[in-house]
Design goal:
Blueprint lengths: L13 E3 L5 E3 L5 H30 L8 H23 L5 H6 L1 E5 L7 H17 L3 H8 L7 H6 L1 E5 L17 H4 L9 H13 L5 H16 L10 H31 L13
Antiparallel strand pairs: 1-2, 3-4
Length: about 280
């Protein structure tokens, strides 16, 4: 939690809760959102055709009567507005397409979306999805950071990834001489690709010959030092082992917190769980 009067810097892939806690989240990308929406639209068309067929079978000459326009419009409203609103409300932001791609609709502050959000999204979807065959939704989503469609912008929601990445494999333990340094070390700026290189080296280091082992340790250490503060005065390999251990511990805590938050949304809790790791 940020201190009173302090500024909270929010990255593009973070959300800010009411307690001024920055949560590291993974919005669903444009392609997966498009696939999810397409699945929902196909399911809605099939359902609409099924309802029309059922009414035709049980209603006799219903479609030849003056009530046909009223029944058709009512059926469309039921399938395109009422049912999507009910499904997203009672499933806490899920639908058939979202289940398929592993996403959930949540508020901008990370809480579970409710009836109002689902209704605005469904009502707007009649225009941006059905009347324009998804063209408006696609154009808007391509130019928003979290691939939000028009209904999301009006409702204050976005699609969050619910399939958390597996916990990272155990790495080498923190070297004892770096115990004090680990309490103040800042490794958050380390790029993921460079962190993976350091992790790979730490794992294969015992299999390398001494000369190659030292050369690789020094090369990777030179790159890592630019993103770590403060830099301890230790052997390059010891330094890399310390950085990898800290990253693994913090990544594991972040992934565990993400899984806990998804579980809290499923259980119907609007607020993120207490103690969710800050970034």
């Amino acid at each position: 939690m940020a201190a009173p009067g302090s500024l909270v810097t929010i990255a593009q892939d973070e959300i800010l809760t009411g307690e001024a806690v920055a949560l590291d989240v993974q919005p669903v990308g444009f392609f997966l959102r498009a696939v999810g929406v397409l699945i929902d639209m196909v399911a809605s068309v099939l359902l609409l055709l099924g309802v029309v067929w059922f009414l035709d079978r049980v209603g006799g000459n219903l479609w030849d009567s003056s009530l046909a326009p009223i029944v058709l419009i009512s059926t469309i409203v039921l399938v395109w507005v009422v049912l999507p609103t009910a499904v997203e409300t009672f499933s806490r932001g899920r639908s058939l397409g979202k289940l398929a791609v592993g996403s959930r609709i949540v508020r901008l502050d990370g809480g579970a979306a409710g009836f109002r959000h689902a209704f605005i999204r469904s009502l707007t979807g009649v225009f941006e999805l059905w009347m324009t065959l998804g063209a408006v939704a696609a154009m808007v989503a391509m130019f928003t950071p979290r691939a939000q469609r028009l209904g999301d912008l009006l409702a204050g929601t976005y699609a969050e990834r619910t399939r958390a990445q597996p916990l990272p494999l155990p790495a080498a333990p923190l070297p004892p001489e770096l115990t004090g340094w680990a309490e103040i070390a800042d490794v958050g700026r380390l790029p993921d690709r460079l962190a993976r290189r350091a992790l790979h080296f730490v794992r294969i280091a015992p299999q390398l010959d001494p000369t190659s082992r030292l050369r690789n340790a020094e090369a990777i250490c030179t790159e890592v030092r630019a993103y770590v503060s403060p830099v301890p005065d230790v052997h390059p390999e010891v330094f890399l082992r310390g950085v990898v251990a800290i990253r693994r511990e913090r990544d594991a805590a972040s992934l565990a917190g993400q899984s806990e938050r998804v579980a809290s949304l499923t259980a119907g809790t609007d607020a993120p769980p207490a103690g969710f790791p800050q970034r």
